[in-house]
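Box S1 | Example of a co-folding query
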Amino acid sequence: MEIRGKSVCNGIAIGKLAVFQRADNTVKRYAVEDTEVEIRRFEEARERAKSQLSELYDRALKEAGQGEAAIFEVHRMLLDDQGFTEAVCTGIRDQGVNAEFAVSMAGEQVSQMFSTMPDAYMRDRAADVRDVCSRLTAVLSGREEKGFDGEEPVILLAEDLAPSETVRLDKSRILSLVIRQGSSNSHTAILARSMNIPALVRTDFPGDADGRMGIVDGREGKLILDPSPEEIERYRALRDQEDRKTRQMQEMKGQESITLDGRRIRLYANIGSVSDVESALANDAEGIGLFRSEFLYLESADYPTEEEQFQAYRKVAEAMAGKKVIIRTLDIGADKQADYFQLDKEANPAMGYRAIRICLDRPEVFTTQLRAIYRASCYGNIAVMFPMIISVSEVRQIKEIARQVREELTEEGIPYREIELGIMIETPAAVMMSEELGREVDFFSVGTNDLTQYTLAIDRQNPKLDAFYDPHHPAVLKMLETVADNGHKTGCWVGICGELGADTTLTETFLRMGFDEISVNPSKILEVRKAIRSVDLRG
Ligand code: PEP
Ligand code: MG
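Box S1 (continued) | Returned holo structure for phosphoenolpyruvate
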């Protein structure tokens, strides 16, 4: 029996299924005599929960890094939130109920508020509120969670996993994660990617799956229940083949990204947060070709300050120790929403008020980011590029704003370096204008994800159109060639940072077109390097 799911991390796992057993969290309501005693009980449980969270933070920091650990900071903050604690105390006082019940009522209110927010990231935070509240009620009623039994490694199935549950899991015993709910942004998905194990979300597994055999195929997004011996054999062979490939790829570490006839190409990594630098370095990235700066805005409840941004850019620049770090300025709007931007709902968001359009329309947001980038420039080899460009006049406006930012920094005595300015080529207009645009900037980086969407008039978010979304379409490839030619004609270097850059069936084509740089997901670097090293451009 096959069950479809959404794959959030590739790979194959074969093993016994174990359903994650959560502690019984039903909360009973009862009347209390002395509400002040009950409030003290709540306060003690809150302190106990906070110290548990500190322990979890330290453990996650050690095991999974800052990105994973940060969530426990957020949980601690929720426990300190005045609105939440007041709602619990008022519940106890006004209704004369037990602390467990007051906590679950207050938690329900707050998580409801999150779950109706338009922004997907904020909606996912409802799970954090529920997680904190069940920690509190567990402490109050002295209950413990069971997790999963036995010694052997398993494919773990769960409704959803809260961050505090994932951090307590014995990771060495998990072959794969399969979640009934979840999304690509959920913690489970992030955890699976950092553990590099196959994982599916939105998979409707049956209630009696515990203890049965299963296969997770993360490449095709499916869970096979009770596989036949032939299926197990076939998947074992596939898994061994993948393992061999991964081991072989390790040999590419420390090698140059150079063709057989001596043509060198810069092989960089795409990252979406500061913590991703670790995997970029572990996979031998020669630089960061696309640092998607949106995460700073999406993870925040309000505009990130100049200082916060400066610290993030500086950390990445320092970690890369002199290797190039290309920061892409804010690309918000369309599928990436943050409430505090108060963007209107649009009929065609992909073609709407987004990216550089917002930045030019709200110069205070743009200037804050540029100041942070220039300040960080003293700590490494930083460059900046701008998304969704369609015209020369936009680039001139950007350059003028960047000039003013530098002038202000000089007046304030704040040091900065001159940095390379580039643009992303992700609209057909930018391709058509690439010769003129090339005279204005230092480099181009082609965003093939959006360029394919706009060239083929196919919404990249619409799963119904997956079969039509074809980045190999000759129109897209001709555009890439035009961009490379016009870039070089005007003295720019040219790169690719969309997903297509990792498509090794096109590596030779890109090299023949003359691309100077390719930037890919860190997990793809070694594979692309291997492809580059097998190309011979002679003849
Ligand atoms: C692209 O469009 O190819 C790109 C790299 O940018 P993003 O995927 O962030 O839109
Ligand atoms: Mg894009």
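The CA atoms of residues 80 and 90 lie 16 Å apart. The pocket of phosphoenolpyruvate (ligand 1) is lined by residues 290, 292, 331, 426, 447-450, 497-498 (CB under 6 Å).
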